[in-house]
Amino acid sequence: MVRQFTAKASAKDLCGYLSLPRSVYYYVPLNGRRGARPSTHTFKKDGTTVSNEVVMADIRTCLSREFCCYGYHMITDDLRDLSYIINDKKVYRLMDENNLLLGKVIRSRGKREFAKHRRIDATYPMEFICMDIKYIWVDGERRNYFLLTILDVFTRKALEQIIQASIRHIDVIDLLRKINHRYGIKGVTVRNDNGSQFMAGAVKQFLRSAEARQEFTHIATPEENAYIEAFHSIVQREVVDRFEFASFYEAKQTLQAHLTWYNYERKHGELGRITPQQKWDQYEKENTTGKIIFALSGKAEAGNAGEQPARNNLNNGDCQEGMNLIIPSFQKPSLLPMPLKTQRAKEQTDLNSFEKSV
Fold first, then answer.
1. Pairing mode of beta strands 158-164, 189-192
2. Is the dihedral of CA 98, 103, 105, 106 positive or negative?
3. Interaxial angle between packed helices 248-264 and 226-235, expressed in degrees from 0 to 180 and rounded to the nearest 10
4. Is residue 191 predicted with pLDDT exceeding 50?
5. How far apart are CA 335 and CA 261, in angstroms?
6. Contact of 83 with 45, CB cutoff 8 Å
7. 5, 47, 116, 200 - which has most CB atoms within 10 Å?
8. Overall CATH class of domain 128-320
9. What is the mean pLDDT of the chain?
10. Are β-strands 41-44 and 49-51 bridged in parallel, bridged antiparallel, or unpaired?
């Protein structure tokens, strides 16, 4: 409006008539974010400066530790222990830009890569892994808990499993981080459904940073994730349908015992009536000479899942080379003391018969 009448009066008088500060009239907006530009380097206590890329590398190192589930406040303390002079606001900004914040809000960015083939034809361990969540009913607490399992497609071995009152995207990241620490997931293809925990941007970012590929099944097509669905049907048939759980702790102990049974004792028909662990060991034996390592498959690229140093040094998932092999116990905890659902029904029938006779 001021510019329309600048030919008839001065800009000073026109701004006075409109009660408009002249600084507002003369203000020219700049492109980009308002305020000071964010710093690109960080000071250390010895007087040196490092770039933000180095700071991010140290942040990722802190988060890669097993069981580490820190927010930006705790990461700030870790960086200060590493002689950084840094405040929590900058740590928040760096972690937010790299999708590493421990937030409750699930944010999904970018397009999803859907599965191109319904059936997976894996040729070696840790080529394809799949994950899914299943409800576990705890009768003593009258509620469901959530069981998250990650399965190796080639050997059908259940790599990791957790049961919790709720499953968030950070729990998925923690489980994948444990698998990455133990076996390595560089070059691995991870298949899952379209659950919000798997679609979270933080999960996608973690898999990208680990150089793993994530693919999603199409909507309402559980057959595209048939391997993990088959495993959960085994859990339903062998555990959930047979036992009544009085508490969450009882359910957790039972599922842990069943996981050991499934990997080390239960024979799998699709594997030629051998156990998943035997299939894993058989591949190692056929593709190695001398020490236990994973040989590079003909379809694998250099540096992919076939040659992870963490996997090369591990045997049976737990023991390092040169250490005594620890054979897991299949006797404890025992599932026998737990009441069977069929046993509970029989006891109720006997009780009813007794009452009728009286």
1. unpaired
2. positive
3. 120
4. yes
5. 11
6. yes
7. 200
8. alpha beta
9. 78
10. antiparallel
Domain ranges of the chain: 1-37, 41-97, 128-320
Cβ proximity of 311 and 284 under 8 Å:
no
Q: In what order do the strands lie in the sheet with 143-152?
A: 158-164, 143-152, 128-138, 189-192, 213-216
Q: Is residue 213 classed as helix, strand or coil in its secondary structure? A: strand
In whole angstroms, what is the distance from residue 243 CA to residue 216 CA? 33
Q: How confident is the model at residue 111 (pLDDT cuts 50, 70, 90)?
A: low
Sign of the alpha-carbon torsion through 188, 189, 191, 197: positive
Nearest to 111 by CA among 204, 46, 25: 204
* Closest residue by Cα to residue 186 from 195, 176, 194, 196: 176
Q: Give residue-wise pLDDT tens across range 127-178.
A: 999 999 999 999 999 999 999 999 999 999 999 999 999 999 999 999 999 9
Task: Tell me how far apart the alpha carbons of residues 196 and 174 are, in angstroms, rounded to a whole number.
Answer: 16
Residue whose C-alpha is closest to residue 210's, from 60, 80, 86, 73: 60
How long a stretch of residues is the chain? 358
Dist. CA 59–CA 76, nearest whole Å: 9
In a 13 Å sphere around the CA of 22, the CA atoms on its Cβ side amount to 6
Sign of CA dihedral 47, 53, 59, 64: negative
Residue 149 in tokens: 């399992």
As a whole number of angstroms, the distance between CA 355 and CA 358 comes to: 5
| Element counts in the chain: helices (H) and strands (E) | 13, 10
Cβ neighbours around 340 below 10 Å, total: 14
Contacts of 221 (CB under 8 A, 6+ apart): 118
Q: What is the pTM of this model?
A: 0.53
